UniProtKB/TrEMBL annotation:
<feature type="transmembrane region" description="Helical">
    <location>
        <begin position="211"/>
        <end position="228"/>
    </location>
</feature>
<feature type="transmembrane region" description="Helical">
    <location>
        <begin position="45"/>
        <end position="67"/>
    </location>
</feature>
<keyword id="KW-1133">Transmembrane helix</keyword>
<feature type="transmembrane region" description="Helical">
    <location>
        <begin position="331"/>
        <end position="358"/>
    </location>
</feature>
<keyword id="KW-0472">Membrane</keyword>
<dbReference type="Pfam" id="PF07613">
    <property type="entry name" value="DUF1576"/>
</dbReference>
<feature type="transmembrane region" description="Helical">
    <location>
        <begin position="259"/>
        <end position="278"/>
    </location>
</feature>
<feature type="transmembrane region" description="Helical">
    <location>
        <begin position="173"/>
        <end position="191"/>
    </location>
</feature>
<keyword id="KW-0812">Transmembrane</keyword>
<feature type="transmembrane region" description="Helical">
    <location>
        <begin position="145"/>
        <end position="167"/>
    </location>
</feature>
<feature type="transmembrane region" description="Helical">
    <location>
        <begin position="378"/>
        <end position="396"/>
    </location>
</feature>
<feature type="transmembrane region" description="Helical">
    <location>
        <begin position="119"/>
        <end position="138"/>
    </location>
</feature>
<dbReference type="InterPro" id="IPR011470">
    <property type="entry name" value="DUF1576"/>
</dbReference>
<feature type="transmembrane region" description="Helical">
    <location>
        <begin position="79"/>
        <end position="99"/>
    </location>
</feature>
<protein>
    <recommendedName>
        <fullName>DUF1576 domain-containing protein</fullName>
    </recommendedName>
</protein>
Amino acid sequence: MIYKFLFFMSVFFIAFGLVIGNVSIPSQIATIIKSPDYLITDYVEIAGVGGAFFNSGLLMLLFTLLLKLLRVDPTGVSIAAIMTIGGFALFGKNLFNVWPIVTGVFLYTLMVGENLRTYLYVAFFGTALAPITTHLVFGNEFNILGIVIVLFIGFFLPPIASFALTLHKGYNLYNVGFTAGFLGMFIGALLRAYDLHPEPRLIWHERNQLLLALFLFSLFFTIFLFGFKLNGWKLTSYKNILKYSGKLLTDFVLLENEAVTLMNVGILGLCGTIYVLAVGSKLNGPTIGGIMTLAGFGALGKHPKNVLPVAVGVIIGALTNSQPFNSPAMVLAVLFGTTLAPIAGEFGFLWGVVAGYLHSALVINVGSLHFGMNLYNNGFSGGFVAMFLLPIIEAFRNMRNIFLERTKGKNEE
């Protein structure tokens, strides 16, 4: 069933891209492949709606076929990975720049004598560093040397990802984004040392709003209805999902079932779309990428109950800081900042708000460390927020327990 869903997603995007782009698709894809694609580069703006969505759908299809080729039994993490790839294929990942990263991870897997499936999802999420491929191969004309360098980057992703997980203890859902941020930080430092770093950019599409809104509402409403049908047209069992904290790895397909998982994916996708439109932002490559990632992780830890507090925290930050409330940075922080949803799920609404608020400030600063080369900038920021908050939360809980024990002792006297 999950394979059918993933193929449906891929074909839906490809068909939309072909209808909109028509005969111009090849030239649009060529533009996407050759253009610099570090943050924030909107493929919808630089190549057109058709080319961007065709690129997204085709990448989702290829990665789904890779799952099939390796005989993977897909679960919630598969949905999260494929939808995240599809989302970022609208602003940073393309048919050329992802494969050296994936190959590097596979080389590491073979070198340590593991099955290719062992670090498969590290490879999938590790495509966060895909812009480095474009920057080295096309931007600085390193050519084959650039590809070799990116292979080494992919090679070191698995061991660093395993270590990074111990730092935030699973409370940052975008663990590989945190990992990619570390790698990107050192790569960015080296590029700056040799004056090879890119300049900041913001390419942001603002047209075709009705078309993109109709596409997203059709997509996510269809996904919800499909899950609703699988669930016997009942909402009752959906509430089971809300009891989970969302901490890695909370795979809703394994813990519940495919039906309520797809319902959750559809609901989160609709919520994300409504939010972007409600605050007066624009539907484009980056915001749709955020919506797709939010929805995709509806299969791997996120649900409305643990997402809402973090979103509220980011919104409070956006309303009170110097950034415009509906600026690209703040809108994306709301969508992607839900990587910290497990903090709200585990420790409660208030701590979720605190996490979101801190994230709204940190995320606008850490991007300069990797020069936009890590597409999962919010995952990088989220890892630091989780590392900072966890010991503080633990300290408050210990103080509360001591206070309660002392109060209890006095009452007994």
